[in-house]
Amino acid sequence: MSGPGLKHVDSHAAIHEAALNEAKELNEIMAKLLQNNDLEKALEIAFVAVEHWETRTLRHADAEERGLYKELVEENAALKDSIIALTRDHDTLRFLVKNIKETLDSEGMTDEVLQQFYTLVHVDVYHNMEEERILPSH
Asked: 92 with 130: CB under 8 angstroms?
């Protein structure tokens, strides 16, 4: 069973907004450090950003998949396709984070890694919009 905050669109949106704002701030810091060619600090912040995505967004995604999504489909079978799409978004985020970690370990911080962090934000913005769209309808 999911926590009560996950089923209420306003509190759920607040969770999303807070995590996204933190991710955007980390991206800005990494961009400035790369621009200043401070690769060592950029790499440190990149690992902080990876941890952020793993502990905030992906842990939240795991909780949604274990509880909220199952409950929504049980309550309204018409949401099944939307839930499949939302789960696919989570898989995309997981893939990007895994790819970022592998690149950081093998090549260090690069502009390509920064672009992938930006991609995480874009995917998550769309995902959150779609998720929040179906919450009130259940």
From this structure: no
pTM as predicted? 0.90
User: Rounded CA gap, 97 and 4, in Å?
Assistant: 28
Total number of domains constituting the chain? 1
How far apart are the C-alpha atoms of 80 and 101, rounded to whole Å? 32
Task: Reduce the secondary structure of 80-137 to three states and give it as a string.
Answer: HHHHHHHHHHHHHHHHHHHHHHHHHHHHCCCHHHHHHHHHHHHHHHHHHHHHHHHHHH
pLDDT in tens, 75-114: 999 999 999 999 999 999 999 999 999 999 999 999 999 9
What 3-state class would DSSP assign to 58?
Answer: helix
